[in-house]
What we know:
single chain; 1009 residues; alpha/beta; 27 helices; 20% strand
Amino acid sequence: MQPSPEQSPHHAYPDHWEADVVLRDGGTARIRPITTDDAERLVSFYEQVSDESKYYRFFAPYPRLSAKDVHRFTHHDYVDRVGLAVTVGGEFIATVRYDRIDATGRPASAPADEAEVAFLVQDAHQGRGVASTLLEHIAAVARERGIRRFAAEVLPANTKMIKVFRDAGYTQRRSFEDGSVHLTLDLEPTAESLAVQRAREQRAEAKSVQRLLAPGSVAVIGAGRNPGGVGRTVLRNLLGAGFTGRVHAVNSALDAGQDTIDGVPAHRSLGEIGEPVDLAVVAVPADRVPEAVADCGEHGVQGLVVLSAGYAEWGAEGRDRQRELVRQARSYGMRIIGPNAFGIINNSEEVRLNASLAPERPASGRIGLFTQSGAIGIALLSGLYRRGAGLSTFISAGNRADISGNDFLQYWYDDPDTDVALLYLESLGNPRKFTRLARRTAAVKPVVVVKGARHSGSTPPGHAVPISRIPDSTVSALMRQAGVIRVDTVTEMVDAGLLLADQPLPAGGRVAILGNSESLGLLTYDVCLAEGLRPRPPIDLTTSATPQDFRDALSAALADGGCDAVIVTAIPWVGENGEAEPGDGEVLATALHTAAAAGPAKPVAVVHVEIGGLAEALSAATSTVSQQRPATQPFTAAQGTEPTGATEAPTAPPSAPDTGAPTPPAAPAPTRPAPDGALRTPAPPTPPPPGTAHPTGTEAAPGAPQDTPGAPQDAPRIGRIPAYPAAERAVRALAEAVRYAQWRRQAAVPGKVPDFLDDTIDPQGAAARIEALLGDDPDPRGRPLGHDEARELLACYGIAVRPTLAAPGPEEAVAAAARLGYPVALKTTAPHLRHRADLGGVRLDLDSEAALRRAYGDLTELLGKPAELRPVVQAMAPRGVDTVVRATIDPAAGAVLSFGLAGAPSELLGDTAHRLVPATDRDAAELIRSIRAAPVLFGWRGAAPVDTAALEELLLRVSRLVDDHPEVVSIALEPVVVAPQGLSVLGASVRLSPPPARTDLGPRRLSNY
C-alpha cells in the first residue's frame, strides 16, 4: 500500500528543488516550492494578474481567490501535488502546479504516472521566458516523483502557453476537445528538449553578461569626496575612457551642497538619481555592501561590479558574507561580478566602458580576456599593450561568486566583436559545463586557457568549487578533447592569442622558414620538429638581404602549395666593419605586410632580434601600405628592443597530432637565393594531408585582414603580423594553431557513439544486477565487486573476463589447471604484488602439472606463504601487448575513460590518455594513438601490429556501460592483452556506489556558492 501524504517519506520540504535561474532578458529569479507560509504572497500575486490571464488559467472569470483556493494552492504533499513559484525580491511573479491523475483524470497516487499541469505568469513578466523555465523545473520534479507524462488543457486563444509546450522539445500529442486544446507531453528528455534547454541557457546567460558590459548608465557607489581611493579611481577611468552613457557618483557622506564629483552628478543614494541605473560599481567597505545592494535592488539596477574585498578570501566569516551577497543580489534579479574584482572593460565604440582599476582603456581589438586574478589581469593588459594587441572585452572577476568564465564563454560564443577568447582560471566552478561550453565555442573561435593553482592541492582563497580527484594532466587532456588550447603560462597565452586573432588558421603543419640568419633559421627548424610540425629546410637570404628580398621570399613561400605557414626570422644587417648601421624596422614591416596581404591566406609569424620598430610596425592596425620609402636598404638594430633571451624556459612539448609523416631527417643545409633572385625549394611541393583544405582555399580565421573603410580600392590591405623575440615562442604559438585547426576540421564531422544493438549488450540486465548488488540501503561510500560479480556485470556489455580460480595450495592449483586446461599462468593477487610482474609474482606458460607444482614452490619460497600471496590460476591468453583500460566518475569532471600500457614505466611517466564519456568512435581511435608508447601497438621494431579495432571496441563498450549506469563509479581492466587477432581481459575490478548528482543534465540553474 502506498503511504498517505502524511506518512510519505517525501513529505519533508524538498530544498533541493530550490534554484536560482537566469531569464531570457538576463535578469535572475528564484524558483522554490510553495509552502503554507506563502498565502499572503499568493493573494498579492494573483491581484496583479490581469483578468485575461486569469481567464486563460481558470477558463472563466475569476477575479479573486477564495480561502479554499488559497489553502489548496499552498498545501502540497510534494509527491502527488506539487506547486512551484518564481520569486523576485521575495514576491511571486509566476506559479506552476501539478496534480497526479489516473486514466480517467481523477486525483490519484502512485503508481499513476500522469499529472495535470497549469501555469500562471504575472503579465508584467510575460515574455521573459518564465514559463519555459518553470516547465523545465516542474518536469524534473515530476520525473523524480515517478510521473512520466503531463496533461494540460489550454484555450485556443492562449497562444503563448501553447507555444511554451510546443517549443519545449518533448514528445507531445495535441487534440481539440470541448472547446480547448488538450496537450500531452512525455517527460522523458529527448535530444531536442536538451538542445532547446541549452540554447535557451546560452541566450539567457549571454544576455545577463551583455547587460553588464553595455549599460546605458553607470553609478559608482563609494566615489570618494576627495581624490584617490578605489571608487574615485573607477569614476575617473569611466570618464577617461569616454563612456557613451550617463555616469553618476553615489556617496552617502556627501557634504551639504556638494552635487558633483569630478564633474558628474553626485547623490547620497540611488533613489536621488531620478532615472534608471543599469550598472552599479560598488566600492565601499564590505560591511556597507548589503545596504548598497539593497538600494540597487529596490531601484531596478540590473547588475553589480563589486570591487570591495573582505569576503571568502578572508576565511569562514568572509565566505558566509559572500554567500549572503550572492543571495541578496539574485533575490533582486541582479548578477554580480566579484566580489574582490578588478573590474570590466568593453571597447565597443558604442559603449567605451572602463569600469575597472586599469588607468588606461586598452586598444580596441578582437580578443576577449577573462581572468580570476586582478594581478594577472594587470600583467596581461600590460603585455598585450606592449605587443600592440587590442581587446574587445576584459573581465577580472575576483572571487567570481556569481558570474564566471562559463558565462563569458556563453557571451563570446556569438559576440561579433570577439574572435579569440583568452581565460586565466584558478578554479573551475562547474567543470562539466565548462567543457561543454568550451567545445561549442571552440568550434567557431579559439579558446585559450591558462589554469593556475594546478599543483597547490587546494582551492584558491575565495573560490568555492567541487573537489576533483583527477590529476592536472587529465584535466589538460579533457580540455584538449574539447578543443581548448591549454597553455602553461600567461606569456604563452598572449603569444597564441596574437597569432590566432590576426592570422588565418593553417591548413596543416608544413612550415616554411626564411630569414637572413642561418643559425636562427636552424634553431627555428629544430623547435618546429620538437613541436610536431613539419618544417621545410630553412631558406637563408644571407645577412645582406634587403626588405625587398624578404618580400619576394615571403611571396614565394606563401604561393608554394607545399607550405601551410611561414616563419620569418630577422636579425639586424651588419656592415663590413662589424658594426650595426642605423635604421629601423618599419620598411621591413611594410615589405612583409605587402607580401602577406597579396598572397594566399596563410599564417605568418616573425622572429626578430634587436630590430628597432619592427614589432611595433608589424602590430600596427590594418591600413594601406605606405610607399614613402624604398624597400631596398638592409635594416639595422636600434636601442631598447627586447632581446631574444628574454623568454621563459620552454616547457615540454605537448603530444603532436598524428600526421602520418616519417621521422624528419636532421636539419638540412639552408637553401640560398639563386643568382637570378629566385628562391630554390629543396623538393617539389607535396599535397596537403587527406582531409585538409587546399592552402589557397583555407577558411580564414577570425581576425584575417579586412578591407579598411576609406582606403583606396587599389591599395593592398595589411593585417597585423605577430612578432616574437624568440623562436621557441613563435613556433609554440604556431603549433597550437596547427593543432587547433586540425581539431576544428575534425569537429566539423563529429564522431559517433555506436549503439551496439547486438545481443552482447543488455542494459536492462545490467541495471537489475546493479540494483540487486547495491541493495535497498546502499552504502554511500560504495561497494567493490567480487571477481565473479564483476565478470557477470561486464558480460552484460559484451566484455568477457577470463576466469580466475583461487589456488590456496598446490593441490588446488593443480585442480584449477585441470579445469581450465593447460597451459596456465600462476599469479599472486596480494595488493603489494598485484600487476607487478617485475617483482616475480607471475609465472607463465606452465604446460604440465609438474611445471605448475615447481612454479608454486618457487613462488612461495621466494615471496611468502600462500595466505599472504593469494595465488590464482588462469588459462594462458595469446601473446600480445599488455594494456590498461579504466573508467572513473570524478565528482567535478564527470565520467572519464583512460587508456595506457600496463607496467611501472607507463605509470611513472604518466603515459596515459583520457577522454570524457560518452566516447565516440573517433575518441576511441585517438585514445590509443595519443599515448607516447603508441608505436608499440602498431608494429614497433618489426613486431606484429596488434588488433587495435578490438581494443577500440572494448573502450567503447566500457564507455557505454559507465554512461548507461552512473552507479558504476569505477572500472579497471588490467591487464588487457591485445594480440594480433583479438584481445583478452585478464583482470577486472568494479566499484558500485549510489549515483552522484548530475547537475549538467537537470533543468537550468545557477551554481550555488
